[in-house]
Amino acid sequence: MSKAGSISAEKRKKVTLSVILTVVCIIWVLPVLAVVINSFKVNTFVKTATFALPLGEMWAGFKNFITGITLGNYNFWQAAFLSLFITVVSTALILLFCSMAAWYIARVNSTFCRIIYFLCVFSMVVPFQMVMFTLSKTADTLKLNTPWTIPIIYLGFGAGLAVFMFTGFVKSIPLEIEEAAVIDGCNPVKTYFTVVLPMLKPTLISVGVLEIMWVWNDYLLPYLVLDRTRYMTIPILIQFLKGSYGTVDLGATMALILLSIIPVIIFYLVCQKHIIKGVAAGAVKG
């Protein structure tokens, strides 16, 4: 094959790949686009003209957002506060304790540490449905069924991915840096906080972004654990958003869904480059 023919074939491959990825991207974006369109549409047209633009008599303005915030028996702002609290505290616990555990596992490297590491890796492939009923009973028994204690459960479920990524990154850090800190008089705690933790920044950011997106959008775990008559996160509130006689206002529901995904989308777009850096850094050594 001539050089020109080889270049032409390579160009066709790139064009084909671009077309395929564009189609996949459109398929992924369509549900989000439907939510945006219908959040500004009068409720009666949400079902009959789902993908039509909200023009003319279909335009509802911000009425759906006001209705969604005020509709129902549970306060939207309280649900937003609980979601924010659970997300921030859970992520903070995961980042702190899992990075400590990963540092210990990577540096001690004993049989016990290797077993713990492989158990954390194995936990990533165990479906949540296998443990959810046992988890619900255990949470009730240990009084972990409140928004103030559920971050402990998230710590357990988020430890697998976090320990895996942190361990890979810690193994890429030269041991001589920590030895120099010990010679200078640092104990293990001071070495971790003054030497190791600052170098973990790329992985801390990437793990933090992934965990925030997971916890903020999680529906099943709070639904199983929390007392829904007293506490609701935003995903649970949207599920139980009903008007009089049990009717569902789809326009208001779409508006609340949009309000719930906007912070995560903005946060992800701002931090996406750090995710790539952190994943690449954590994959340097296994």
Question: Low-confidence parts, pLDDT < 50 over ≥5 residues?
Answer: none
Specify Rg, calculated over alpha carbons.
24 Å
Helix and strand pattern: HHHHHHHHHHHHH
Q: Characterize the main sheet.
A: none
SS field, number of helical segments:
13
What is the domain tally? 2
Strand content: under 5%
CATH topology of the largest domain: MetI-like fold
Query: What is the helix fraction of residues, given as a range?
Result: over 70%
For this structure, what is the CATH class of the largest domain? Mainly Alpha
How many beta strands in the DSSP annotation? 0
Mean pLDDT: 84
The name of the CATH architecture of the largest domain is Orthogonal Bundle
What does this structure look like?
This protein has 286 residues and is mostly helical. It has 2 domains: 63 residues, no CATH class; 209 residues, MetI-like fold (Orthogonal Bundle), CATH 1.10.3720.10. It has 13 helices and no strands. Helix 4 packs parallel to helix 7, helix 4 packs antiparallel against helix 10 and helix 10 packs antiparallel against helix 13. The two termini are 41 Å apart. The mean pLDDT is 84.
